[in-house]
Amino acid sequence: MSLIITDECINCDVCEPECPNGAIYQGDEIYEIDPNKCTECVGHFDEPQCQQVCPVDCIPLDPNNVETKEQLMEKFVKLTAKS
């Protein structure tokens, strides 16, 4: 499943540059994650990098976007494919 940023976000700006897929962006009030680009860092790292750097622990799994590791790897392959 992809990740989601909750209301506890303090807009500290540390998660956005850590995302290798460019899935994190500044929303209207807090940072948000594009579920179509989030692979939980599968294919890049062993752990989601945004979760590792978040000082307020506000980036849980998104229960509305359940995906298996295989699906996340397929998404990674599509996102990183050369056009």
UniProtKB/TrEMBL annotation:
Protein name according to UniProt: Ferredoxin
GO cellular component terms given for this protein: cytoplasm
Keyword Cell cycle: no
Sequence ranges assigned to domain 4Fe-4S ferredoxin-type in this UniProt record: 1-29, 31-64
Leader sequence residues: none
InterPro entries: 4Fe4S_Fe-S-bd, 4Fe4S_Fe_S_CS, PSI_iron-sulfur_center, YfhL-like
Keywords annotated in UniProt: 4Fe-4S, Electron transport, Iron, Iron-sulfur, Metal-binding, Repeat, Transport
Pfam family, one: Fer4_7
GO molecular function, one term: 4 iron, 4 sulfur cluster binding
Superkingdom, taxonomy of origin: Bacteria
